[in-house]
Amino acid sequence: MIRRSFLGAVRLGQHRVLPGIPQVLPRLSPTSAFGSSTDSLVSRFCPEKTDLKDYALPNASWCPDMLNLYQEFLEKTKTDGWVKLPSFKSNRDHIQGLKLPFGLAVASDKSDWRIFTRCIQEEGQGYEYVIFFHPSKKKSICLFQPGPYLEGPPGFAHGGSLAALMDETFSKTAYLAGEGLFTVSLNIRFKNLIPVGSVAVLNIDVEKIEDQKLYMSCIAQSRDQQTVYAKSSGVFLQLQLEEESSQ
Amino acid sequence: MIRRSFLGAVRLGQHRVLPGIPQVLPRLSPTSAFGSSTDSLVSRFCPEKTDLKDYALPNASWCPDMLNLYQEFLEKTKTDGWVKLPSFKSNRDHIQGLKLPFGLAVASDKSDWRIFTRCIQEEGQGYEYVIFFHPSKKKSICLFQPGPYLEGPPGFAHGGSLAALMDETFSKTAYLAGEGLFTVSLNIRFKNLIPVGSVAVLNIDVEKIEDQKLYMSCIAQSRDQQTVYAKSSGVFLQLQLEEESSQ
């Protein structure tokens, strides 16, 4: 089980590195985080062959807008440097073969672990989303179609469901763009409600990297860009995952 | 279905009332929002008799810490003015008999609508939580036990799952304390990770009401208050729900 007594070792501070942090934070230069390592992070993250189910693929619940946008970005993966990210059931699948930082060791067990944004497996009822990432531009696009299990106000997605998906998209972007692992802060301004069953497009940019933190921004809007649903910013802490030694 | 063309009528602005808003925002004085009406909001929100399932009741998945804290606050409902809030499957159940603001009319259909924080119905796998509210102190306490479907980093709750529950607890508090309906902004600073299966206690305070907005703060920490998981602030917009006329 989780070694809870070590948890205190990973304390996250927004404006400063807290006491104790240097022990678990290898100093990463922006160059190593933002240079050629992005390609190796991406190629590790997107295995060519895997038996794992990819939840970021079209299914019968996707509306025409969602399908059209997906096809549009899939074309861009062939010509414009975009990469479609796979989405497995658990982050444990995404970091296979990598070691968590000191203090976060978790023994495997038989629980049915799921990453929160893939918690609902019935197609179309919960989260339908797919993330495309552009390694050299350090940008991501997330196509999001909320289902009826994500409701807040009747007929509309819960603000918290958008907040969680922003956090998740920031998280994957931060990892691939510069080994950002943990959310330090998340600030959201909501503008309009997202109707359940419609599509929201999240545009994420990495703004800067400074003091082992990645600063990102996001705007979520309708496909025609006429309606802004929300704007947000996120700060992530860089932490290096190391290869597990074979045993 | 949803009248999407009216959606633009409800635009949320953080620092100012946007053009068009006055038509749908009755001016509420702080007195009427924070005065005796809180009691009527609470009594409507907590029906003495209902056939609806209350998801905020102990079940076999609750750990001893969660059960003990629940009992502790249940005692306070008898002596100290706290109210245990019921938690139904959908906000449609919570606002039964009330009309949504202009532009948000939704015809009923046969979808299985669920409020996002009750999206997972298997006991212990997703969100286990219960909210207690104190009408005169304008405070809430939320007891939160994340299950394995809420995972982010292996073994720990996804930051987005905490963000969503903060939004939801703010939302219920804002409604009961002053008819706050829509999230305007949500700002979170994460400090430590919450182990899956443990208990986090969220303390919410209404800080002030100004310009038809409620300003709230939240601190989420371990039961012994030795570990702060996150701190947040939330701003909600006041909007009055009216009685539906009988047809």
The helix fraction of chain A, in percent, is 10-25%
Head-to-tail CA distance between termini of chain A: 20 Å
Mean pLDDT of chain A: 85
Number of domains of chain A: 1
The quaternary structure here is: homodimer
> What spatial order of strands do you see in the largest sheet of chain A?
1-3-4-6-7-8-5
CATH first level of chain A: which class? Alpha Beta
- CATH hierarchy: architecture of chain A: Roll
State which percent range the strand residues of chain A make up.
25-35%
Q: Order of helices and strands of chain A, N to C? A: HHHEHEEEHEEEEE
Largest interface: A-B, 65 and 65 residues
Strand-pairing-aware structural class of chain A: alpha+beta
| Shape by Cα distribution of chain A | globular
Main β sheet profile of chain A: 7 strands, antiparallel
Number of helices of chain A: 5
CATH-derived topology of chain A: Thiol Ester Dehydrase, Chain A
Uncertain residue segments of chain A: 1-36
C-alpha-based Rg of chain A, rounded: 18 Å
- Would you report the number of β strands of chain A? 9
* CATH superfamily caption of chain A: Hotdog Thioesterase
